[in-house]
């Protein structure tokens, strides 16, 4: 029982850390993608240290709070659809044979990138000029 309490408390602290990173990216809009990537490192730590369903809880709590409270939703959308869930899925993909794992990783990335563009454009109303992923 005591071990589960420690894991839950650590998951709550990791959720708060993810939210603070996303808040920093929301305030400084130049860093929105960078802070979403940094928040994914927190999820990686949860996958390694906590295991089980705790990384899902951290991702879910952080995503809900970020979508509700952040003023700029693009960083929260990227974290919710890609940066938060991808480390969890990657840990499952790595257990499969190498070719299948790479195929699933690429398919996951392409599906999620399409979903990010669709959600940002049609649901959040972000203009197309701001969703420019070209160099």
Structure description:
The protein is mainly alpha-helical. Helix content is 78%, strand content 0%. The termini are far apart.
TL;DR of this structure?
The protein has 135 residues and is mainly α. It has six helices and no strands.
Helix content: over 70%
Specify the overall morphology.
flat
Terminal-residue CA separation: 51 Å
Structural class: mainly alpha
What's the total count of β strands? 0
Order of helices and strands: HHHHHH
Largest sheet: none
What's the tally of helices?
6
Instruction: Write down the overall mean pLDDT.
Output: 86
Radius of gyration over all CA atoms, rounded: 15 Å
The poorly predicted ranges are none
Strand content: under 5%
What tags apply to this protein structure?
135 residues; flat; mainly alpha
How do the strands and helices of this protein lay out in sequence?
Elements lengths: L1 H26 L4 H18 L4 H16 L3 H11 L2 H8 L4 H26 L12
Helix pairs in contact: 1-2, 1-3, 2-3, 2-4, 2-5, 3-4, 4-6
């Amino acid at each position: 029982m005591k071990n589960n309490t420690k894991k839950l408390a650590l998951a709550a602290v990791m959720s708060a850390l993810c939210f603070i990173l996303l808040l920093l990216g929301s305030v400084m809009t130049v860093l929105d993608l960078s802070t979403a990537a940094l928040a994914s490192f927190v999820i990686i730590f949860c996958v390694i240290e906590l295991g089980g369903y705790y990384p899902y809880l951290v991702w879910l709590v952080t995503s809900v709070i970020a979508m509700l409270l952040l003023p700029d939703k693009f960083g929260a959308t990227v974290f919710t659809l890609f940066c938060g869930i991808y480390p969890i899925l990657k840990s499952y993909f790595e257990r499969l044979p190498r070719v299948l794992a790479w195929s699933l990783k690429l398919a996951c990335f392409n599906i999620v990138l399409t979903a990010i563009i669709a959600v940002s454009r049609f649901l959040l109303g972000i203009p197309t000029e701001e969703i420019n992923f070209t160099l």
